[in-house]
Amino acid sequence: MNRLFGAKQTGPKPTLQGAISNVDSRIESTDVKIAKLNAELTSYQQKMSRMRDGPGKSALKQKALKILRQRKMYEGQRDQLQSQSWNMEQAGMMQDNLKNTMTTVDAMKSTTKDLKKQYGKINVDKIEKMQDEMADLIDVGNDIQESISRSYDVPEDVDEAELDAELEAMGDEQEFENFGMESEGAMPAFMQDNTNIPEFIDESPEQSKVKEAAG
């Protein structure tokens, strides 16, 4: 049976990357062979271009045609190998994408599990109660600030019309006082001397006293 199907392989299984490397090496070897055949074809072409028609030129032409057939064969083989390499590279890319997808799915599962575990420790009712207590404390603080900033001298319900009337009256009093100061030479009334000499007196008392002393 082993002669028909061969012995069971016990070595490591070939990997996709190893197969791609093997094919690429065969492509490189084929390219070397094609390059060698191209060099021979170029040499034959140069020789035939310098020869006249005859048996010698015909013999070189047959050799060139043989090399050309070999080059075509190698080029076909190279194309097949390149196609195989490309197909395996696509399979490798699909395999990598699948691995990345599985890694992403596993990470999402682990994250979801952790989130559920963390959110399970949070009591929404307690949070809402804490928010209500915080709002009540803010209201109490506002009431305290309003209470301690209250003014005791000025009533809060003062009529603006009364304030305007009082302000206007103060302005009238100020204008009246200014007018009095201008009419009296900018001197208060209690400091002014209103004792004028009567018209029927010819001389002032001081002048008459001076005349009596001289006489």
Helix and strand arrangement:
Blueprint: H1 2-5, H2 16-49, H3 55-119, H4 124-148, H5 160-183, H6 205-214
Helix pairs in contact: 2-3
Could you provide a short overview of the structure?
By secondary structure, this protein is mainly alpha-helical.
Description:
The protein is mostly helical. The chain has six helices and no strands. It has helices at 2-5, 16-49, 55-119, 124-148, 160-183, 205-214. α2 (16-49) runs antiparallel to α3. The longest helix is centred in the middle third of the chain and has 65 residues, at 55-119. 1% of the residues are buried. The model has no long low-confidence stretch (mean pLDDT 78).
- How far is the first residue's CA from the last residue's CA? 185 Å
Q: What is Rg?
A: 62 Å
* Uncertain residue segments: none
Structural class by secondary-structure content: mainly alpha
Q: How is the main sheet built? A: none
Topology as a string of helices (H) and strands (E):
HHHHHH
Per DSSP, what share of the residues sits in E-state strands of 2 or more residues? under 5%
Number of alpha- plus pi-helical segments: 6
Number of strands: 0
Question: What would you call the shape?
Answer: elongated
Helical proportion, percent range: over 70%
Give the averaged pLDDT, no decimals: 78
